[in-house]
Amino acid sequence: MPGDNAMALSVSELSAALKRMVEGEFGNVRLRGEISGFKRAASGHVYLALKDDKAVIDGVMWRGNAARIAFAAQDGLEVVASGKLTTYPGRSKYQIVIDSLELAGEGALMALFEKLKAQLGTEGLFANERKKRLPFLPRVIGVVTSPTGAVIRDILHRLEDRCPSHVVLWPVKVQGQGAAEEVAAAVRGFDALAPGGPVPRPDLLIVARGGGSIEDLWAFNEEVVVRAIADCRIPVISAVGHETDTSLSDHAADLRAPTPTAAAELAVPVLADLRHTIATMALRTERCVRRYHERGGERLQALVRVMPKRDALLAPQRQRTDDLAQRLGLGLERRLGVARRRLDQSGAALRPAMLAHRHSAAAARLAAASRMLDAVNPDNLLKRGYVRVTAQGSGAVVTSAAQARGVGALMLRFGDGEVAAVVEQAGAKPYTPPKAKPAKTESGPPVDQPKLL
């Protein structure tokens, strides 16, 4: 076959030949396409792909050139890449080594702006329900902007003119690579401050930047900044660009200011106006209080005029008091008369003749009762020859012979004294006198008691 004797090329030789041909044929080129797969490596190099509706080409941008990108490159952005077309032998593919990257035009950024606005709006980041009310008189105001330039000077000057406040500046880049990340970190840093810490926590934030092109302001359209502002618990005023400029940060903030100077005016009231308002309100309050007192005095005087006099109010009570006093006197006199009559009747019942009669009757009743008592007195019966028999020891009265035999030892009481007796009869129970119990004394042994009878 033809070419069988041709020299065989190695893979490296073929790749080198293709590389020389591509670089010699095309050299430096400018490609227009949409960024896809944008990635910034830790080394600082940038890797991406440019595509249109029919083809894709890989690209690489070395660290030195990548640091000079004037906008925040990201997927979906249409750009124009300038560089050298070459091949990558390690993977047998061609690519463009990009020297510079620029936007394809404001139309590309506006298309991306509308896309991001619709995406974030769908998540509710721009909803009015999320907006927070600004404090009327913030003690501490945090400002996120560049430490140099006219913006921070305008804000400080305007705040000093209107109402001097404590301002805390968080310096950031407001343009170029890394600006969006710094702005977002500043907003989150302010929000993370603890109340009462060494760095005072602001009551209000102002995120500001001066005017510029859409590319210059693009950092404030980045998703990371928009989310940081929307999530911030501190009320935020966005003041990016001029009055005609609009950023996604404006939509996410709690209030949009057309300029940084206007943001300072919206942040605090005019101290002189505030003092004038307070003085006016104090004067109006004083007038209202005086008018209220005057009207109250007038109403009081009107009530005094229609109010009945003291004598007229007290006349019925006085008349009733006099009537009650008269009735009380008559009642006391009647009761006193009744008491006197009862006393007279009681005195009549206690006259001497009647008392003597009652005394004689009572004495007769007493003598009859005494005679009856003497008649039934058992001691009087003993004087007439009767004897009372009791058991020795217990003192129980013995009323029968059988009881006497059972007791044995008796005590016979006569009219003039007592005599001990013992029952002695055939068949009777012999009597054994009880042993006397010795009496206990504290000084010595018990002494036997002699019999009295």
From TrEMBL:
<protein>
    <recommendedName>
        <fullName>Exodeoxyribonuclease 7 large subunit</fullName>
        <ecNumber>3.1.11.6</ecNumber>
    </recommendedName>
</protein>
<comment type="function">
    <text>Bidirectionally degrades single-stranded DNA into large acid-insoluble oligonucleotides, which are then degraded further into small acid-soluble oligonucleotides.</text>
</comment>
<feature type="region of interest" description="Disordered">
    <location>
        <begin position="427"/>
        <end position="453"/>
    </location>
</feature>
<keyword id="KW-0378">Hydrolase</keyword>
<dbReference type="Pfam" id="PF02601">
    <property type="entry name" value="Exonuc_VII_L"/>
</dbReference>
<comment type="similarity">
    <text>Belongs to the XseA family.</text>
</comment>
<feature type="domain" description="Exonuclease VII large subunit C-terminal">
    <location>
        <begin position="125"/>
        <end position="421"/>
    </location>
</feature>
<dbReference type="GO" id="GO:0003676">
    <property type="term" value="F:nucleic acid binding"/>
</dbReference>
<dbReference type="GO" id="GO:0008855">
    <property type="term" value="F:exodeoxyribonuclease VII activity"/>
</dbReference>
<dbReference type="GO" id="GO:0009318">
    <property type="term" value="C:exodeoxyribonuclease VII complex"/>
</dbReference>
<keyword id="KW-0540">Nuclease</keyword>
<keyword id="KW-0269">Exonuclease</keyword>
<dbReference type="InterPro" id="IPR020579">
    <property type="entry name" value="Exonuc_VII_lsu_C"/>
</dbReference>
<dbReference type="GO" id="GO:0005737">
    <property type="term" value="C:cytoplasm"/>
</dbReference>
<dbReference type="InterPro" id="IPR003753">
    <property type="entry name" value="Exonuc_VII_L"/>
</dbReference>
<comment type="subunit">
    <text>Heterooligomer composed of large and small subunits.</text>
</comment>
<dbReference type="InterPro" id="IPR025824">
    <property type="entry name" value="OB-fold_nuc-bd_dom"/>
</dbReference>
<keyword id="KW-0963">Cytoplasm</keyword>
<dbReference type="GO" id="GO:0006308">
    <property type="term" value="P:DNA catabolic process"/>
</dbReference>
<dbReference type="Pfam" id="PF13742">
    <property type="entry name" value="tRNA_anti_2"/>
</dbReference>
<feature type="domain" description="OB-fold nucleic acid binding">
    <location>
        <begin position="9"/>
        <end position="101"/>
    </location>
</feature>
